[in-house]
């Protein structure tokens, strides 16, 4: 289904019409999750990885009052460089479209866009979730809600370690969202391949596709979270990360940073505190997720 609110790139249209594999990619990670110029390099690299695997990449963003599904190099540059790009989650979509501003889509908004365009698989770094401060702040990412109402398979390195992972998993369970870890029963913690939480293990892309198809047959609207641990050689251990995260969280609290600014603030602070190591890890894990998403898209 297309509508005039979508502007789908030629390659993506062609792939969707001919039943060729497509994956969606988000743009908040480019505009608000990583610093320039690494963000631009990463955005291009992710598209290249998909291309080289025979899968059409569809980076999603908002421009000129349309949801763009698939962007060109010029548009990637704007997303990476401009300081006026709005972080767009579900509730911001209508407003930013009405105003014709440039918007970078979060996991939540990208899932909506993927559903509208008929894209079934989406790769990101780490999804948003229940924040550790939830008891005071009530901060729970809309990403989790959109998982309950958009039938899209999202490949993520677990959930961002800045979150309360246990509550994040409980929330997803309450909303009926299937969560599987790929080739392990441990739920990974973004920068680290392990955590003290376990989820159901899934061992093949065929098994993922089979479950997804059954869920569609059942008329279920929810998506699916595939947790893909970062390779051991690229990880930062959870012990090391927890120390850094604690300092970043304290800093955010002291500065009174809340709402949609919190996640970008924490990510940037963690890059600073880890001397850039967290950025390298972040890049590796997204690349790893794109590869798995491509394999899933090919069997679907
Ligand atoms: N994963 C990353 N970097 C990011 C994000 C995810 O590696 O910047 C973004 C995603 O777009 C996710 C968003 O949807 O952070 C969550 O923001 P919030 O907690 O405000 O819902
Ligand atoms: Mn939030």
Plain-language structure description:
The longest helix has 23 residues, at 277-299. The protein has helices at residues 10-17, 28-31, 38-52, 73-81, 93-99, 107-117, 134-137, 142-147, 165-174, 205-217, 238-255, 262-273, 277-299; strands spanning 6-8, 22-25, 56-63, 66-69, 86-88, 103-105, 121-123, 153-156, 179-182, 200-202, 224-227. It is an alpha/beta fold and 300 residues long. Strands 1, 2, 3, 4, 5, 6, 7, 8, 9, 10 and 11 form an eleven-stranded mixed beta sheet that branches. It has a single domain (2-299), classed as Indigoidine synthase domain (Indigoidine synthase fold), CATH 3.40.1790. The structure holds pseudouridine-5'-monophosphate and manganese (II) ion. Manganese (II) ion is lined by residues 139, 141, 262.
In short:
By secondary structure, this protein is of the alpha/beta class. It has one domain (2-299): Indigoidine synthase domain (Indigoidine synthase fold, 3-Layer(aba) Sandwich), CATH 3.40.1790.
CATH architecture: 3-Layer(aba) Sandwich
Rg calc: 18 Å
Low-confidence sequence ranges = none
Span between N and C termini? 18 Å
What is the CATH domain class? Alpha Beta
Write down the secondary-structure element order.
EHEHHEEHEHEHEHHEHEEHEHHH
Beta-strand content estimate: 5-15%
Mean pLDDT over the full residue set: 96
Number of helical regions: 13
Please describe the structure with a list of short key phrases separated by commas or semicolons.
300 residues; Indigoidine synthase fold; eleven-stranded mixed sheet; 13 helices; globular; binds pseudouridine-5'-monophosphate; binds manganese (II) ion
